[in-house]
Design brief:
The structure is a single chain. The protein has three domains: 10-169, Methyltransferase, Cobalt-precorrin-4 Transmethylase, Domain 2 (2-Layer Sandwich); 185-192 and 270-395, Immunoglobulins (Immunoglobulin-like); 197-259, no CATH class. Helix content is 26%, strand content 29%. The chain has helices spanning 13-19, 40-51, 79-91, 155-161, 197-219, 224-235, 246-254, 256-259, 261-271, 319-324, and strands spanning 28-31, 59-63, 65-68, 71-74, 96-97, 101-109, 112-120, 128-129, 143-146, 149-152, 174-177, 185-188, 274-276, 278-281, 288-298, 303-305, 329-332, 336-346, 351-353, 359-363, 371-379, 387-395. The strands form seven sheets. It has a six-stranded mixed sheet with strand order 12-22-21-15-18-17, with helices on one face. It is elongated, with a radius of gyration of 28 Å.
């Protein structure tokens, strides 16, 4: 089922996720150019091949991008290509059986238009052509991808899809959120972070300013008695009363964020932080040694990973002290936060937490309804090749 027309993804969050995927994944298919007029059959073939892939992830057909090494590079589409994308997109549901959830997306990256189809809930394969659309594309035709090549499905492919044959081989290591190594997707509530120390300071100063204005308007001067009573109400009886001029109060209001910087960081990264750990499992019958887990987390407005523990202003902690306390190593770059941890050795079937201390993330209200993809990379001296994948955080509206 096609859900709506092509849309602009809010803050390109979905595109951020797509671009962090492995371009060699069974869940990803790149096309540098849009399908030409009369090539709708090629589009349907590609969608079917993705939907029939041996993966449990959502699939993405990305148009206007190509693979460069192990990364995805955006090329962009021209105006005519976007027009064809709109026309092709609306016809897809009538051509595929059983029903598929297909969401078309259009975004701009650095001024370059990019189009994508997200294909999800592919839990009822095989997906086939509902009706004939060409001589070589008859009703019931089915396609799969085999080592990057799209071909007609064979008997062994159908056996796999019907559950009669071997499924996708299990991963040598399983990584998931918190205490569940199978949890690849975690839904969270956005915490209320509206009462930071700096915001409370500004509210108090603003109350004093308004009291002074009211006193001047009513009496023509600052009445010390009124100001003292107001001070007790605003700051409490234990805070000494100091009378400031209006210019000083305005300056204090403007400097509240700077003056409360350490207290704010403790508030956002400790008191209100989303705390996340990961767990890792060794499903094999032998031990795996020297396991290292590395995460790449995109920098997004309203979503910030703490690079250290932020203690209270009364007890400041250095980066070294933070590491000694067990906080994971976090390196912040312009676009990503890189998190790394050495798990060491995992025995057969063993499950261990990845971090000694949970990762702290400050989350703002703009993240409601948004998603963040976390790309992971795992190595071990006992594995023939590195393991890559992604985890997803979803924030409730």
């Amino acid at each position: 089922m096609l859900h709506g027309g092509p849309r602009l993804a809010p803050k390109t969050m979905l595109l951020e996720e797509i671009l962090t995927e492995n371009p060699n994944s069974a869940a990803m298919l790149l096309r540098r150019d849009m399908y030409a007029e009369g090539e709708q059959g090629h589009l349907v073939r590609d969608v079917l091949a993705l939907a029939n892939g041996a993966t449990t992830k959502s699939r993405h057909l990305l148009l206007g991008a190509e693979q460069v090494g192990d990364a995805i590079q955006v090329c962009g589409l021209d105006r005519d290509a976007i027009r064809r994308f709109r026309l092709f997109g609306y016809d897809l549901p009538a051509l595929i059986e059983p029903e598929l959830k297909i969401v078309p997306i259009m975004v701009e990256v650095e001024g370059k238009p990019v189009a994508a189809l997200e294909i999800s809930d592919c839990n009822n394969p095989p997906y086939t052509l509902r009706r004939q659309i060409a001589e070589d594309m008859r009703t019931g035709a089915c396609w799969v991808r085999d080592q990057g090549v799209i071909r007609p499905a064979r008997r062994e492919d159908l056996d796999r899809m019907y559950g009669r044959g071997p499924a996708e081989p299990p991963t040598p290591l399983q990584l998931g959120f918190n205490n569940d190594p199978t949890c690849q997707q975690l839904e969270l509530q956005v915490p209320d972070s509206s009462q930071s120390p700096s915001s409370q300071t500004r509210e108090r100063i603003l109350s004093v300013i308004n009291t002074k204005k009211a006193s001047n308007k009513m009496l023509g001067y600052d009445d010390t008695g009124i100001l003292r009573l107001s001070h007790v109400r605003i700051f409490g009886p234990d805070t000494p009363f100091v009378q400031h001029g209006m210019d000083t109060l305005v300056m204090q209001y403007k400097q509240a964020s700077d003056d409360s910087k350490e207290a704010d960081e403790h508030y956002y990264f400790e008191e209100c932080a989303v705390q996340i750990n990961l767990s890792i499992q060794n499903p094999q019958q032998v031990s795996l040694q020297d396991i290292v887990v590395e995460l790449s987390i995109p920098k997004v407005s309203g979503f910030e990973v703490a690079d250290r523990l932020h203690s209270s202003p009364e007890k400041q902690m250095t980066e070294m002290e933070s590491r000694l306390a067990g906080y994971p190593r976090v390196d912040i770059s312009e676009k990503h936060a890189k998190v790394s941890a050495c798990v060491g050795t995992l025995g057969p079937g063993q499950v261990l937490p990845v971090f000694e201390m949970p990762l702290r993330i400050a989350v703002g209200p703009e993240m409601r309804g948004m998603k963040v993809a976390i790309k992971y990379h795992m190595t071990s001296q006992d594995l023939d090749e590195d393991l890559q994948g992604r985890l997803k955080l979803i924030f409730a509206r």
